[in-house]
């Protein structure tokens, strides 16, 4: 079991990780999710003893990484698949890793087989594709047959076949009862791979919940197009609902109401004798839900507001970084549609930062020797 307790990391004036606490249980894949710059890599580096926390601590089966007797037998990690001497063959790279860590050399061929690299074991690792390099990195992580595994964005840049292979590989490790933590900024990918999600933004915990809970908490919004938006707005407010003005893709005024059924809205309109031209319910997709819940925590924000989102269960109130929807409140009178419909924008990519470790220079097994 991995345990992160009140972990904080400051780089000068930048707080990369902020009082972060969560557990990673064995026997399941835990997705460590957050937009670019959220603090995932920094947290993993601290878990692996590669960075010193400003405060708080991370433990593996009750011990900080630095105190583990045989680190590679307990923890395997893949932080940077390209960390390999380009002129070494896959086999000699793994042999070197095994020897320098006191692991049996006989294990090398086993892990090559496990990741499907036996046929290219003698080839120069420098000529490997990204997918093959990822497999070699996984082989290195598995050398000590560890119970705990950490992978930082392992599917980044892979083709669909490579993604499916890594997904199945991680799920198999969890089925074997291992503790598997895998970071990603892609919710859809994580929803297919992980059983549990730890979502962070700006270094803080947003939620720790099952994938099912995350999916179930996606908000449903009913949108109504009517030639009488102000009358409908007033009738809905009188009925105790909280309508808000929006616009559809053609810029036509629309009345939107969260967490209500189309039946209820249709009944209110019918009772008031208001004509409707369109009445539809929309449940946020996983990706929309993720963007909405992390919207307030994205470092480099786009121009418009994300769709309000009820949010999945929040682990602990002090860590909640996202304003969650409260009970319905009567909105302002219908003022016409806003300049643009409130469709969540994609999370912008984080521009490269001076001093930011885009490619951690640490060994991919993650362990100081
Ligand atoms: N060595 C460093 N010096 C200064 N700032 C750093 C350093 N490492 C990380 N940061 C900053 O800390 C924050 C968290 O970065 P981190 O790389 O941990 O995020 P991440 O969630 O892994 O993002 P990504 O998905 O882009 O890798 C960012 O603002 C980043 O610029």
Topology:
Layout: E1 2-11, E2 14-24, E3 28-33, H1 40-47, E4 55-60, H2 71-74, E5 75-78, H3 90-100, H4 107-114, H5 130-142, E6 148-152, H6 160-175, E7 179-184, H7 187-193, E8 196-201, E9 204-210, H8 211-216, E10 220-225, H9 229-238, E11 244-247, E12 253-258, H10 262-271, E13 278-283, H11 286-294
Parallel strand pairs: 3-7, 3-8, 5-6, 6-7
Antiparallel strand pairs: 1-2, 1-4, 8-9, 10-12, 10-13, 11-12
Bound molecules: adenosine-5'-triphosphate.
- Shape from CA axes? elongated
H/E topology pattern: EEEHEHEHHHEHEHEEHEHEEHEH
> Can you tell me the number of structural domains?
2
- The helix content, as a percent range, equals 25-40%
Poorly predicted residue ranges: 300-334, 336-369
Helix/strand/pairing class, anyone?
alpha/beta
What is the count of β-strands?
13
CATH-defined architecture of the largest domain: 3-Layer(aba) Sandwich
Main β sheet profile: 6 strands, mixed
Report the β-strand fraction as a percent range: 15-25%
End-to-end separation? 22 Å
CATH-derived topology of the largest domain: Rossmann fold
What small molecules does this complex bind?
A: adenosine-5'-triphosphate
User: CATH superfamily of the largest domain, please?
Assistant: P-loop containing nucleotide triphosphate hydrolases
Q: State the CATH class of the largest domain.
A: Alpha Beta
Across the major sheet, the strand order is 5-6-7-3-8-9
Family: Belongs to the ABC transporter superfamily.
Organism: Gordonia desulfuricans
Keywords: ATP-binding, Nucleotide-binding, Transport
GO molecular function, one term: ATP hydrolysis activity
């Amino acid at each position: 079991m991995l345990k992160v307790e009140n972990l904080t990391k400051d780089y000068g004036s930048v707080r990369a990780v902020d009082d972060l606490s969560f557990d990673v249980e064995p026997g399941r894949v835990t997705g460590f999710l957050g937009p670019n710059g959220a603090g995932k890599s920094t947290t993993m580096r601290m878990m692996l003893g590669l960075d010193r926390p400003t405060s708080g601590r991370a433990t593996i089966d009750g011990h900080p990484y630095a105190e583990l007797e045989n680190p590679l037998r307990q923890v395997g990690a893949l932080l940077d698949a390209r960390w390999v001497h380009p002129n070494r063959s896959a086999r000699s790279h793994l042999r070197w890793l095994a020897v320098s860590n006191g692991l049996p050399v006989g294990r090398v061929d086993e892990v090559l087989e496990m990741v499907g690299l036996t046929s290219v074991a003698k080839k120069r690792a420098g000529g490997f594709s990204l997918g093959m390099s990822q497999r070699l990195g996984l082989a290195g992580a598995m050398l000590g047959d560890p119970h705990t595994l950490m992978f930082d964005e392992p599917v980044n840049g892979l083709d669909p076949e490579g993604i499916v292979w890594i997904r199945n590989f991680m799920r198999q490790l969890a089925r074997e009862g291992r503790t598997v933590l895998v970071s990603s900024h892609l919710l859809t990918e994580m929803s297919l791979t992980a059983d549990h999600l730890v979502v962070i933004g700006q270094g803080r915990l947003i939620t720790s919940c099952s994938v099912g809970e995350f999916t179930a908490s996606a908000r449903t919004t009913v949108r109504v197009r009517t030639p009488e938006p102000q009358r409908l707005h007033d009738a809905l407010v009188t009925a105790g609902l909280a309508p808000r003005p929006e616009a559809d893709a053609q810029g036509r005024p629309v009345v939107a109401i969260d967490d209500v059924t189309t039946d209820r809205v249709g009944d209110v309109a019918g009772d008031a004798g208001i004509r409707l031209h369109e009445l539809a319910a929309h449940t946020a997709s996983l990706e929309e839900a993720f963007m909405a819940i992390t919207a307030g925590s994205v470092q480099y924000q786009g121009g418009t507001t994300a769709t309000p989102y009820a949010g999945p269960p929040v682990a602990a109130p002090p860590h909640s970084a996202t304003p969650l929807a409260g009970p319905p409140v009567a909105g302002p009178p219908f003022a016409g549609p806003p300049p643009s419909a409130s469709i969540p924008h994609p999370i912008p990519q984080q521009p490269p930062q001076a001093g930011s470790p885009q490619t951690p220079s640490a060994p991919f097994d993650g362990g100081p020797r």
